[in-house]
Amino acid sequence: MSSNPLLFRIAFGSIAVSLIVLGLKLLAFWMTGSVALYSDALESIINVVTAFAALGALWFSYQPADQNHPYGHHKAEYLSAVLEGVLIVLAAISILHQAYLGFLDPRPLNAPWQGLTVNLVATTINAFWALLLIRTGRKHRSPALTADGGHLMTDVVTSAGVFVGLVGAIVFDMPLLDPILAGFVAINIIWMGWKLMRESVGGLMDEAVPPVTLDAIKSIIATEAEGAIEAHDIRTRQAGRATFVDFHLVVAGDMTVSFAHDICDRIERALKGKIEDITVTIHVEPEDKAKHQGIVVL
């Protein structure tokens, strides 16, 4: 399977963007001494690590099938998303520790407005890039890029919450809000990490295609299997951007192998024309194996 240059350009871009955003957030933390901004900067360190992991997983997933991996390497992208979820949880633990220390000894912020301005610039960059990653990842069915974009979007939401909260802390002279906000950021990060790991584990466990995709597959089989009797025991699974389908096709007992093979080829061509990166396996059976269920051929 040939690689997609666009996905690799996006993955390289994520590394550059994450480094820029990390630099800006560290600058904001250095200027203010805010525990909440420290938590924001720490999450950006994870963004850098996961951007590298996403690039590596993307490259590995496009390696051709080999003797040890005859079905390809598509699931490598899920491993990147699992790693990202684990790192997110570890970062949240560190943030909770800092929030606890800040709660015991709250301190006023230094140069608060300048620091918040720098952090707002970083958040804006993150928002733009997160939307690009999510849109590209979903379009090309890349779990690594989609997970990376989802992480960044959560980072944007928490950064916006930190910004609003710190403005309130400055205006109302309530330094205790700083560590409290950091605690909320940590809880939100833990929830996001759990969701990422849950979705990634689902991919590793061979979850079926979405119902709308399954309906499209059944419709194509029913339309293109002219000459057969029925199709049953349809199974699907997803592995990153790849989709796998297998089913039993019942034909007349006196049908020639050549004619049955032509029907299978027609179904396979139609499925590949509709669904990108699909692998189809069809088991042909004689009519006495019919179950009188599944797909009745039109």
TrEMBL record:
It comes from the Bacteria. The keyword Transport applies. The chain crosses the membrane at residues 7-32, 44-62, 82-101, 113-134, 155-174, 180-197. Residues 210-287 form the Cation efflux protein cytoplasmic domain. Keywords: Membrane, Transmembrane, Transmembrane helix, Transport. InterPro entries: Cation_efflux, Cation_efflux_CTD, Cation_efflux_CTD_sf, Cation_efflux_TM, Cation_efflux_TMD_sf, CDF_Transporter. It is a multi-pass membrane protein. It comes from Flaviflagellibacter deserti. It is found in: Membrane. The keyword Transport applies. Residues 14-205 form the Cation efflux protein transmembrane domain. SUPFAM superfamilies: Cation efflux protein cytoplasmic domain-like, Cation efflux protein transmembrane domain-like. Belongs to the cation diffusion facilitator (CDF) transporter (TC 2.A.4) family. Its main location: membrane. This is Cation diffusion facilitator family transporter. Pfam families: Cation_efflux, ZT_dimer.
